[in-house]
């Protein structure tokens, strides 16, 4: 109930502003309404994606979060469904959205997945102490913070070829991807010096970069 994040003190469950039973009751009602609304979506491919995302969020805390890599991939998958579902709806079907000549939906979806995965691993580095204390084997807990930072940097760099191949304005996306990778490199250097405070600050800087202008440049390259 206390959570695993270092800055979890203001969580409504932690401060007992909401009881676990009240939270479960509310969530069960929201999910019931969500599943009913998904049934009303006319396109089968969109319904399948929405259902997969809903099931993932429902299973996340108990079944997916404790599994290394799966927790990060789960969050990234849920986020990348936004352009995927939007693209399918706008194009009219799955094929036109992802494989029709001139469509950049596939590239945008991949970059959202890579960018969120990159951010989630960085967040795990920031929360490594809490996760290790509660037995959650995140990437930095299991393989070390240096390996996790290198993985996050690799994910940022992987967006470069995607932008070059599918981006309508590839140069903008490449600049954004490289800047995100550079911020992780800065964090990696602080990790090597084993300075916890500087590492936390550097990782938070890289996380901020993946949430603001640099990642927006990557997304804008597909417009």
Please, could you describe this protein's structure?
By secondary structure, the chain is mainly α. It has one domain. It contains 11 helices and no strands. It has helices spanning 20-39, 44-64, 70-91, 94-98, 105-126, 128-133, 139-143, 145-166, 170-192, 196-209, 213-220. Helix 1 packs antiparallel against helix 2 (44-64). It is flat, with a radius of gyration of 19 Å.
What is the C-alpha radius of gyration, as a whole number of Å? Answer: 19 Å
> Any low-confidence stretches, pLDDT <50, length ≥5?
none
Mean pLDDT: 88
The percent of residues in helical segments reads: over 70%
Give the overall shape. flat
Query: How would you describe the oligomerization state of the chains in this entry?
Result: single chain
Number of strands: 0
Total tally of structural domains = 1
Task: Return the structural class.
Answer: mainly alpha
End-to-end span in angstroms? 42 Å
Order of helices and strands: HHHHHHHHHHH
Characterize the biggest β-sheet.
none
Describe the secondary-structure layout.
Layout: H1 20-39, H2 44-64, H3 70-91, H4 94-98, H5 105-126, H6 128-133, H7 139-143, H8 145-166, H9 170-192, H10 196-209, H11 213-220
């Amino acid at each position: 109930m206390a959570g695993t994040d270092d800055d979890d003190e203001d969580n409504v469950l932690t401060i007992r502003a909401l009881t676990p039973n009240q939270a479960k009751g509310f969530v069960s009602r929201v999910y019931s309404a969500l599943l009913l609304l998904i049934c009303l979506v006319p396109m089968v491919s969109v319904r399948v994606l929405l259902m997969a995302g809903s099931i993932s969020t429902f299973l996340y805390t108990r079944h997916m979060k404790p599994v290394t890599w799966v927790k990060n991939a789960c969050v990234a998958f849920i986020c990348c469904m936004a352009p995927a579902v939007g693209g399918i709806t706008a194009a009219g079907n799955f094929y036109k959205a992802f494989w029709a000549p001139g469509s950049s939906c596939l590239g945008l979806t991949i970059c959202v997945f890579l960018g969120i995965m990159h951010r989630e691993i960085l967040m795990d580095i920031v929360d490594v102490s809490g996760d290790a204390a509660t037995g959650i084997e995140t990437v930095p807990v299991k393989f070390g913070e240096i390996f996790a930072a290198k993985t996050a940097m690799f994910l940022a760099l992987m967006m470069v070829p995607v932008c070059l191949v599918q981006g309508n304005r590839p140069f903008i996306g490449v600049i954004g991807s490289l800047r995100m990778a550079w911020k992780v490199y800065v964090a990696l250097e602080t990790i090597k010096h084993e300075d916890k405070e500087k590492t936390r600050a550097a990782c938070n800087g890289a996380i901020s970069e993946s949430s603001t202008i640099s990642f927006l440049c990557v997304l804008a390259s597909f417009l």
